[in-house]
């Protein structure tokens, strides 16, 4: 049983491994030498604020989303334990809490929390949301997770694909609202979402998602997507323009000019010089 109100006391019962600088961590081992490491316990929010996946899908942080002004987002913590790992060590259940401070009617700062239940694939680092925190109250029944209320989850299918995601946000009222909605859907972080849906199979869709992020001013998130796409589609012409625009917006003008030039040359080779946006020539000169 997993009770969110007993998280702190539960964590002290776990076996921890020392990290650098005297820091403690919780390490959950998975299949094929994969692991999920929880570090930096946040007493304020009652959870681990630095969660790193290591395995066949690479090494990356979970729940780490850059914002418009900085590299990471604060207030997201996670909790788990060895009993939450599936018998085949392919999945682990994680309680995620999105926490932050708000001001009440009396002007006092209060902590606002919303807890969820996620499943992490230890084969790839893909994270999917099961539902509310109540779904974490359960136990493994074979390779299926059975919650206390009786519902059984099989994790072979689920989640929202890039194509479905585009369909959900494409008609939203504003660029900022669209980007904000995308952040909510990609709560696990770009590397983890791409572990769920490989970029080489969704190049066009990911390019559009990156473009939507950029339209809403989320250029750091857009660049996380674009940089990954570059390794699979270095010659994709629209991608070059999107990268150039986001780099320019981030103040990296020298890098942006290189991509603008590459984009313009590619368009000229295809005889599409009339389709080159005016800003490209303006910024190149």
Automatic annotation (TrEMBL):
Transmembrane segments: none
Annotated signal sequence range: 1-21
Intervals holding TPR repeats: 203-236
Transport is among the record's keywords: no
Xref: InterPro entries: TPR-like_helical_dom_sf (IPR011990), TPR_rpt (IPR019734)
UniProt keyword terms in alphabetical order: Signal, TPR repeat
Top-rank lineage group of the source organism: Bacteria
Gene3D superfamilies: Tetratricopeptide repeat domain
Name of the featured protein: Tetratricopeptide repeat protein
């Amino acid at each position: 049983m997993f009770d969110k109100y007993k998280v702190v006391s539960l964590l002290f019962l776990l076996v921890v491994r020392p990290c650098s600088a005297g820091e403690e961590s919780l390490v959950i081992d998975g299949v094929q030498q994969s692991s999920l490491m929880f570090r930096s316990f946040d007493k304020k929010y009652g959870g681990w604020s630095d969660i790193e996946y290591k395995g066949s899908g690479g090494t990356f942080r979970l729940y780490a989303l850059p914002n418009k002004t900085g590299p990471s987002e604060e207030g997201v913590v996670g909790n788990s334990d060895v009993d939450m790992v599936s018998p085949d060590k392919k999945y682990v259940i994680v309680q995620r809490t999105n926490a932050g401070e708000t001001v009440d009617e009396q002007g006092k700062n209060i902590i606002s929390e919303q807890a969820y239940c996620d499943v992490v694939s230890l084969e790839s680092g893909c994270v999917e949301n099961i539902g509310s925190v109540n779904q974490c109250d359960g136990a493994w029944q074979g390779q299926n997770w059975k919650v206390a209320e009786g519902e059984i989850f099989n994790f072979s299918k689920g989640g929202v694909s890039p194509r479905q995601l585009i369909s959900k946000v494409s008609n939203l009222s504003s660029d900022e609202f669209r980007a904000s909605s995308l952040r909510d859907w990609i709560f696990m972080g770009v590397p983890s979402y791409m572990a769920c849906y490989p970029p080489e199979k969704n190049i066009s869709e990911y390019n559009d998602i990156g473009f939507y992020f950029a339209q809403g001013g989320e250029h750091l998130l857009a660049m996380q997507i674009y940089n990954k796409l570059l390794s699979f589609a270095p010659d994709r012409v629209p991608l070059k323009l999107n990268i150039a625009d986001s780099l320019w917006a981030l103040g990296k003008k020298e890098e942006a000019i290189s991509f603008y030039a590459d984009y313009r040359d590619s368009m000229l080779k295809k005889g599409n010089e009339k389709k080159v946006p005016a800003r490209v020539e303006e910024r190149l000169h």
